[in-house]
Amino acid sequence: MKKIISALLTLGLILSLCACGDEKKDDTNKSAKTESSTTVTSAEKTEPAATKKVATEPTETEAVTTEPEEEETEENTSDTEIYDIFPEGVTYTEEYVMESDPGDNLSPAEAALTVVDFFSEHFYFYGGIVNITFDDIDYIYSEECYFYTVEDEMPTTGLCAVNYATGEIYVYVEEDGEYRSVYDIFDNVEGTDVSEDTDISEDIDVLNWSGEYGGEEFSIYINNFDGESFSFAVNNLRNGEEILAGVAAIDPDDKNLAIYGDCGFYLYEDEENIDFLAAESGEWAHLRGQYTQY
């Protein structure tokens, strides 16, 4: 009996030890699972931070896309500086688009400025040029030129051209139906060196004849005044027909008097009134009278 009881006690002790061993295994497995789960969770939480860091890197691409805008701004500034070379009151525009760079030759704007400067000095356009437009590129005497439309304060519209290689200026003469060099029109101008004798702006002994004068039936338009002579045209106010035109010479002994053939002009000191002079029985007697500047 004692042996049976002793055997039972031994068996119970063994089973108790086995149960404790299983619990320790379960605890170990649970701990391992918990650590694995914690590791995975921690890794999952740290990955998005790296992802966010990568997402902020494309700022370099944004910086690159702004560069073309800066270049475009510089080009626009350059164009503005070109047009700023014209004096105040003069408007310059380009209707014709250049297909290539002029290189060492004059640019359209630079050539247009030579036109403005030349004619403001020679009084070819009464009151000075106020608008000049670059229209085209074509040939004059086998030389390529820029072509312009110009307008003065009257307003009077004319056509000009400039040889962009030599700087020679041409004017369209309607009576001849062709462009003529200004050096042919102004007898005292040789080559590109403008004679100082043509600058009469500071000569108090010379009157400025340039302008348009109106009478009852006719008008007298005077331009190309260089201090010694001027071009004129007498027109019928009713139909605009040109009655008489030519070049009158200033009398060397009388600054107020200009002679053309058998007729003449007398400019008063106020430079606002002019008399057309002709013999009573002469061909141009019907043009006689006083004309007042518009």
Describe the structure.
The chain is an alpha+beta fold and 294 residues long. The protein has three domains: 2-57; 86-197, no CATH class; 203-293. Helix content is 33%, strand content 32%. The chain is built from five helices and 14 strands. It has helices spanning 2-55, 59-65, 67-83, 108-122, 182-185, and strands at residues 91-94, 129-140, 143-152, 157-163, 169-173, 178-181, 211-214, 218-223, 229-236, 242-251, 254-260, 263-267, 273-278, 289-293. An eight-stranded antiparallel β-barrel has the order 7-8-9-10-11-12-13-14. A six-stranded mixed beta sheet has the order 1-2-3-4-5-6. Strand 5 (169-173) and strand 6 form a beta hairpin. The longest helix has 54 residues, at 2-55. The protein is elongated. The protein starts with a helix and ends with a strand. Residues 32-55, 72-81 and 188-204 have low confidence and may be disordered.
